[in-house]
């Protein structure tokens, strides 16, 4: 029997707009910072090694934000990977200020977004950012103005594609009237399906959906997850990731970790092919079925 290849490419690919295609298992770089998503990591060498190993394993989509650190995550990515290998896409975002550890304050004014894009370009050592996301709508700033600012930066060639995060379907529809939207990043996992309708909308409009916190699977239906995991000699988290890949062809999970061991385990989910029956059983868990 041939040994399974440990590669993110085993999960297939997803389009980001009309020009970019990436392997459908990415990496979230938030956890590479210090405690409280603040300051440098305790093990800088280890953080750089995780990023390099991710790319070795076929990860082509790395998600970050200027608020992770702040700035630290972007700086680590550039140090580890620049000049970037062909096919690797760095997606970043802005819309938050960081006054301290575990503290987040809104700022999606056009002035702040422009300054944030300029800063990310320098830290990431890029001439243009392939995917740039509005991190979250600002309750005291016009959503349309925020999106228009990113559209203008796209026109200037500083952003290749505009994307959204933490939004409703209404937000997406409004944004699409201003500029093409290539991806949406909302909290979503096997155990948290509040945004099911947004996943369905994204699938119908061919917008990639990036679930953040994709491994929040342990609180609900643990028994079924463990049963299927044991049958496949896999971990429950691998089953949860495999279910996400099954859930929709536009799904692009970005599990994050500061451990190479966990990274390799997560990438292993791309080789885990659940049966249709197993996926239907997972989808029909009583606690969750009503959200589909």
How would you characterize this protein structure?
This protein is an alpha/beta fold and 292 residues long. It has one domain: Alpha-Beta Barrel (TIM Barrel), CATH 3.20.20.100. Helix content is 38%, strand content 16%. It has eleven helices and eleven strands. The chain has helices at residues 44-56, 72-81, 110-124, 143-155, 169-176, 196-205, 222-231, 236-247, 260-267, 276-283, 286-289, and strands at residues 13-16, 20-23, 27-28, 61-63, 89-94, 96-97, 105-106, 129-134, 159-165, 181-187, 208-212. The strands form three sheets. Strands 3-4-5-8-9-10-11 form a seven-stranded parallel β-sheet, covered by helices on one side. A two-stranded antiparallel sheet has the order 1-2. Strands 6-7 form a two-stranded antiparallel ribbon. Helix 1 crosses helix 2, helix 1 packs parallel to helix 9 (260-267) and helix 7 crosses helix 8 (236-247). The longest helix has 15 residues, at 110-124. The radius of gyration is 18 Å and the shape is globular. The relative contact order is 0.14. The model has no long low-confidence stretch (mean pLDDT 93).
- Beta-strand percentage? 15-25%
The major beta sheet can be summarized as: 7 strands, parallel
Rounded mean pLDDT is: 93
Rg for CA atoms: 18 Å
Order of helices and strands: EEEHEHEEEHEHEHEHEHHHHH
> DSSP helix count?
11
Q: From the 3D structure, determine the CATH topology.
A: TIM Barrel
- Derived from helix and strand composition plus strand pairing, the structural class reads alpha/beta
Let me know the number of strands: 11
What count of structural domains?
1
Give, in spatial order, the strands making up the sheet with the most strands.
3-4-5-8-9-10-11
pLDDT < 50 runs, ≥5 residues: none
Indicate the CATH architecture.
Answer: Alpha-Beta Barrel
The share of residues in helices is 25-40%
Q: Superfamily at the CATH H level?
A: NADP-dependent oxidoreductase domain
């Amino acid at each position: 029997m041939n040994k399974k290849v440990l590669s993110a490419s085993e999960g297939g690919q997803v389009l980001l707009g009309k020009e970019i295609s990436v392997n459908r298992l990415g990496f979230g770089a938030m956890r590479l910072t210090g405690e409280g998503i603040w300051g440098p990591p305790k093990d800088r060498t280890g953080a750089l090694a995780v990023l390099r190993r991710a790319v070795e394993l076929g990860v082509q989509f790395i998600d970050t934000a200027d608020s992770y650190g702040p700035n630290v995550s972007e700086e680590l990515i550039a140090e580890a990977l620049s000049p970037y290998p062909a096919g690797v896409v760095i997606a970043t975002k802005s819309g938050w200020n960081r006054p301290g550890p575990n503290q987040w304050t809104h700022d999606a004014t056009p002035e702040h977004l422009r300054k944030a894009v300029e800063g990310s370009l320098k830290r990431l050592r890029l001439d243009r950012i392939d995917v740039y996301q509005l991190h979250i709508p600002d309750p005291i700033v016009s959503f349309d103005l925020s999106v228009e600012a990113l559209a203008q930066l796209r026109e200037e060639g500083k952003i290749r594609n505009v994307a959204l995060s933490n939004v409703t379907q209404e937000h997406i529809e409004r944004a699409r009237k201003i500029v093409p939207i290539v991806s949406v990043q909302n909290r979503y996992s096997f155990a948290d399906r509040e945004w099911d309708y947004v996943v369905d909308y994204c699938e119908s409009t061919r917008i990639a959906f990036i679930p953040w916190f994709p491994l929040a699977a342990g609180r609900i239906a643990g028994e079924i997850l463990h049963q299927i995991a044991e049958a496949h000699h896999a971990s429950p988290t691998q089953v949860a990731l495999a279910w996400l890949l099954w859930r929709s062809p536009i799904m692009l999970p970005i599990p994050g970790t500061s451990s190479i061991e966990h990274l390799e385990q997560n990438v292993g989910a791309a080789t885990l092919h659940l049966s249709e029956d197993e996926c239907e059983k997972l989808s029909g868990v009583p606690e969750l079925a009503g959200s589909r």
